Amino acid sequence: MNMTEMMKSMPMDDTAMASMDMAVMQECMEACNACMQACTMCAGTMAGMEGMGKCVSLSAMCAEMCQTMMKMMMHPMAMSADTMMPMLQATMAMCKACMDECMLHADMSETCRMCAMACEAAMMACEKMTASMS
User: pTM higher than 0.85, yes or no?
Assistant: First the structure.
C-alpha cells in the first residue's frame, strides 16, 4: 500500500486538510526522504575534510529538516495551513542553502553534486505542495 492509498483510508475531518492532493503530498514526502538520505551521505562523506565544515553542517541540518517535514506529513489529521506553510517554507530555505553550498563543491565531489540535486528536487516538491495548499 502506498502513501496515497493509506491517506485515502484515513478519515478527514474539518480540522484536517481534507482537500489536500495526496499525490502531491506523496511526491513531497518521497523527495524529502531522498534529500534526507543524500544530505546524510554528504555530511558523512565530507566530515573531516579540510574546509568542508559548512557543507557538513548544512547537509546535516537539511537532513534533519527534511525528516521533520516528512514526519509532519505523516500526521494528516493535525495538518493545517497555519502549521504546514511555515514548515514548508523553512524546508525550502534549508534545501536552498544546502544546495547552494554543495554546488560549490559539485565539481570535486559526486556526493555533493548528488546532494545538491536532491535538495533541488525536495525544494521543488515543497513548492508544489505549497502551491496545492493555496
Answer: yes
